[in-house]
Amino acid sequence: MLTQDEFELWCRRLNLSEAAIKVIEQIRSSEPSRLVGGGKKNVAGRYPSRKMGMTIQFESHRNELAHIYKLEHDEDVLEFYDQPPPIFLDYLSKKGRRNYHSHTPDFFVIRKNFAGWEECKTEKDLLKLAQDSPNRWQRKDESKWRCPPGEEYASQFSLYYAVRSSAEISSIFVRNFVWLEDYFQNKQLEVDEAITFAVLTLVKTQPGITLANITNRIEQASIDDLNILIATDRVYVNLYTTFLGQPEQEEAFAHMQMSKISAPASASNVCTLKITVGTSICWDGIIWQIVNTGDKSIGLLKDDGKFIDLLNETFEELVNKGKITGLLVSEESTINSEVEELISKASKEDLKEANTRYKAIEPFLNGSSSTKPNRTQRRWLTSYRKAEKIYTRGFVGLFPRHKNKGWYRKGIPEEVRLLMEEHIGKNYENIKQHCIRHAYESFKEICDEKGYKPPSSESYRQAVRNRPLHEQIKKRMGDRAAYKEEPFYWYLYREETPPHGDRPFEIGHIDHTEADVELLSSIMLNLGVDYSYINQIPDMGKSWVTLLIDAYTRRTLAIYITFDPPSYRSDMMILRICVHKYGRLPQTIVVDRGADFNSIYFETLLAYFGITKKQRPAAKPRYGSVIESFFGVADKEFWHNLMGNTQIMKNVRQVTKGVNPKNHAVWTLTKLYTYFCEYCYEVYDTCPHPALKMSPREAFNIGIARGGIRDHMFIKEEEFKLLALPSPKDQQGSRKVTQEGIKINYLYYWHPSFSRIRNTKVEAKFDPFDITLAYAYVNGQWTKCHSRVLRELQGHSEKELMIAAAELKKLNQLQNKQFNDITGKKLAQFFSRIEMEEAALTPAWRQAKKAIQAQRQKDRELKQVHAQIEGQLIESDKDGLLTIDTPIAIASETLTMQATETFKPEVDDVDLDETFKPLEEW
Question: Among 109, 139, 226, 501, which one is least packed by beta carbons within 10 Å?
Answer without folding.
Answer: 139
